[in-house]
Amino acid sequence: MALGSKSIDMLHGPLWNKIIIFALPLAFTGVLQQLFNTADVMVLGRYVSNEAMAAVGSSVPFIGLIIGLAMGLSLGANVVIARFLGMGDTEKANRAVQTAFVIAVVLGLCLMSIGELGVNQLMELLAVPESVEGYARTYLRIYLLGLPFIAIYNFLSAAFRSRGDTQTPLFALAIASATNIVGNLVTVLIFDMGVAGVALSTTVSNGIAASILFIRQVKIEGPLHLTPIKSFKMFDYEACRIIFRIGLPAAIQGMVFSLSNLIVQSAINSLGPDAMAGSVAGFTIEINIYCFINAFGLSATTFISQNYGAKNLERCRRITWVAMGLNFLATSILIAGIMIFSHQLLGLFTSKAEILEIGYLRLLWVVLPEGLNSMIETLSGSMRGYGYSLPPALVTVVAICSVRVIWVYTAFAYHPTFDWLMAVYPVSWAVTGLGLLFLYFHHQKKLSLKSDRLSKAL
Description:
There is one protein chain. The protein has 19 helices and no strands. It is mainly alpha-helical. Helix 3 packs parallel to helix 7 (147-162) and helix 7 packs parallel to helix 9 (194-219). The N and C termini lie far apart (45 Å).
């Protein structure tokens, strides 16, 4: 299938159906990315031990911290390429593609090196229990070897998304996810490699996903064509500057968000292995809702990027509210499904009653208020689409982190129970949502004034 047949005309016609067509493959891509972690947790919990499952859970916030940087910067590439396509400047769009690939390679290698050097310090920072620490260290050291593949996959996915193709990244990840599941079972059940086998399967699968997108992008024609041999020669410093200007605040937002989760994870760890295992079971279920929430937020980013490049501000504004409505509807349906089948879903990970109870508590406190998160992601994604990335990132970082850090060291310290710790999520989302609503309307007012001045000047 030619690239053009997978593209979406974001500049004309109805919005709701195109946003759905764009967002759903993107959401399922996120679900498949989470399936890597889900498969790891399920296989370890069922066939190795609860301590091994807890080890993966203790690693998740740190992995999210590093991947958050790669994904945030790739958002910058998505916005830049989409804007050039909206302007009709295919030459600049292609130079941005080459630049994004170079950034991905360098970033992936740097993150891998830094991560490997910091594993021991991380174990101390998270206060990982001795019964879990060996598993956690082994899992992380092998997983981190795949960071260059993760960076390349995310940046190449951003390039495909910029033109409306969310199907190709989904196809690549579907192949990789199937490989990961089979690899997990083979390495654990046949070769008895335990945590090391699960981590190795994940790393190989990430490499497969990146390779599929790389080969596809080398073969396609048009503005998204990748020429890896010439990429470093075609590196565009101006495109790089804009990618970092837009992507770095989003990356910092994601990283600090994960950093706050590291603090929460440390508090969970203090409650013991059962709390760690129950929390990771609940998290592994709930994160799939976030994949849909994030997909509609990214849809707003990409659609607004192209239309802002085409100077259609009225359509940009409609995109925000259509995306938010669709986001809330999809989130509500998923919340209902997960809560109805919560016990069956949690039972996939463990049969221990204490762990199941903790997992259910996490779902009650985190899944039910996810509608607040859908508003946060849509507003943040919309403002990034305009290239207005730093202020929403600052609001999110300050609100989320301050509330969670204060909560852990005050409310939780006074009443150290799992459910009281989980209450920090809806509280922090409510504060952040209010801040972003105020910022969004303030930004729209500034855009209207700027547009009026330009109209009068003409």
